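Task card 7
Instruction: Convert sequence to structure tokens.
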Amino acid sequence: MKGTTMTSNNALSQFADLSPEQRQLLFEKIRQKKLNSARRPVSSSTPGQTDPLQLSPHQQCLLSRIDGRSQSRLVELVFTGALSVTDLQDKMQQLQATYPMLSARFNPDSNRFTAGDGVSIESVQLGNISLADARDQIEEIRSQLQRRNSEHQALILMLVQQGSASHLFLACHPLLLDGYSLLRLGNQLLAMLFTPIDQIELPAQCTQEGFANWSSQVLDKPFLTKEWTRLAPKALQELESTALCYDGHTHTEQLDTEFLEAHLPSGQSAKQWLCDAINRCLHNWLAHQDITYWFSDPSLKDSAFENLLGFFPYYVPMQAQKFEGQVFNAANQFANLHTRFSPVSEQLAHHLCQSGAPVPLVHYHWFDVDGAEAPDLDVLAVRHCNAGLMLAPFEIHIIEQVQRIDLSIHYDAARMGRDQIQFLVRDLLALLKQDHQSDQAQRPSLSDQLRNIWKDLLQVTEIAPQKSFFELGGHSLQVTEMKFRIKQQLKLDIPISVLYELPTIEKLSSFILATHGNSLGWVPEGQTQNDEEEEGTL
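Output:
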């Protein structure tokens, strides 16, 4: 039959009719469908299991590696506002009823968490003493809380009142909550105390038990195991077990108002500006290990799994309602504010908890301090005092205060020297002090950078507007190479399906600007970067 295209109804024949690019796109769509199916949370327990303190497989792995020497994770919130221990106890009881893990007790003999009587809350009045003596006493309290044994209660709260200012300390066993969750817990407690809340609702899949069941089922799925093997950096697949860090050292750096006013580029958020500088500092250092860095940006998807939170992202209820009288429902925010139900993230967390990380990894998050909606509360400062336990050589915790930005760098002195941390900080400050306006003017546009990658890859001198990569002679192997070069040169991990679906410079650059522009300092014409950013995202 001349002049007609023979296309069989048989599925195999239809597949044979597809071009290599169409086949690759089909495979990518099937993979994403399987990932979406695997991501669905499990809301019910495994038959016969009703333990609200049940641990996930990677939590159990890490717990078995701890020999009792771990310090407590510690955060501190300094604020003005009248607060009593009784009020604090009432709100904690409300949270404990919703999330029983908060009242757990750690039993070193059985090496497991058991049900406790409730969170231990203590109060200290410093009285009329000099500021110097008060600072010394508060520093001693910090030291004691870090080293406090968690056999009685895994979570301890201490309220220290010093004149008009109060210090709320939260110390917990390092496997009870991660640092970001502990900060959120303290922030939510203050919000609950100074803002009326009628009710807190927590979906079943957000509980520790629901998460543990989901995690165990996800890790058992052969498809996800294969995905991890395919996606994981080589260094993580070949590493041997490393020692845990129980006694991390801390380096703190403050970017005050004067520094921000002098160097923060106009029209750019402090978050974007600082994160871009951190990216640039770390990229060359870590790229030779096939790992860039890891941070707790909850909006990340599996295609960018190298940047997922890689340790133990425990869930606690999110910040209370934004509007007075609104019922707090974690289900409304859960999907956008946490990476827990990311299957590749679970594979990663499980692997790191089994083996640790001998190569330089960075765990950093951003925590915005905002007490504007509670008129009787003025949050003066928030500190991440101690990491408690680290799998990586160091962690960076970024806290944006009202008048400054604080960086707390916790590092393992046995694996990284103090000089290395100081060199890194100096490089970071030097980048922040650069004239970014002239840098932006001198930097090639995104389209030009993509065009240079294509020219080198395809060995062509010119690329006409709207010309397809495949029309210029590109093929599937070169698409894979293009993905690698974009990742190396632009620090972007673009899904290969996108490169097939958007085969022109114009379409691809528009996609990158829409999805990654803010994080890289690229902004489409006519847009600004002054939009409000969600707390907990980068």
